[in-house]
Predict the 3D structure of the following.
Amino acid sequence: MAREELTLTRLTGNGNGTCGEDDCPNVYRTASGSIVVQGDVSDAFTPPQGEGLVEIPESVLGW
């Protein structure tokens, strides 16, 4: 996926846009309906150039 500025709608946390008050990591939806995840950088494997891995607790997904 090409890197571009995206409009994000925050789906988790307190909605203030910052990681404060123990409300991160977070999940966001883009205008096109895809999902963006904010979390701790993972070193589980080296992803392809331009991609990254993040790790979040399953509880963030609300399952």
